[in-house]
Every structure is written in structure tokens, then in C-alpha cells.
Amino acid sequence: MQRMHVEFMTQLKAAAGCDGMEIECDDPMPVSRVLELVRGRFDALGPMLFDDQGIRHGWLMVGIDSAIVPRGSDPDVQPGSEVLLATPISGG
What we know:
The chain is α+β, with helices and mostly antiparallel strands. The chain has helices at 10-16, 31-41, 46-49, and strands at 2-8, 20-25, 29-30, 61-64, 67-68, 76-77, 82-86.
């Protein structure tokens, strides 16, 4: 069984109380499924990942193996990949 590492940044890290999680998988899965698994393990992250209709927030940054996932897309994540999740950072 392979693993996919999901790393939390910014407010997601604080809300989850940890740096990330591992997902065991042998087959690719869409980003939306990865986010559902994250929400399933960390209830507090649900509102930070999805809007009231269950759609991924447009401001949520998702990266797969250092490539940013465009808004509105739902590409497959390969086993062994690293997924980065981050919310906007304010300041100047």
C-alpha cells in the first residue's frame, strides 16, 4: 500500500493541530476525494475547505508535487504524491 502525504499550512495547520496527514492508497484519486478524507478526519477543517454547497473554496490553494491546482479543476492525485493545502495569508 502506498501513501500520499497531505501537508497543512497557515490556518489549516492551526485548526487541525498538526502539520498534516497520510492517506493510504494504491490508486489515483481526485483532489475532491482527498479533501473529503481530510474533512472526515478533521471536522474543524470542513468549513475552511468547502463552502455551504460542498464546493471547494476558490481561495483554497492546493498543490500537488509542487504544481498549483487551478481553481475549478479536480485532477487525480497519484499514490506517493505530496499534497499541500493552504489558506490565504494576509499582511504586508
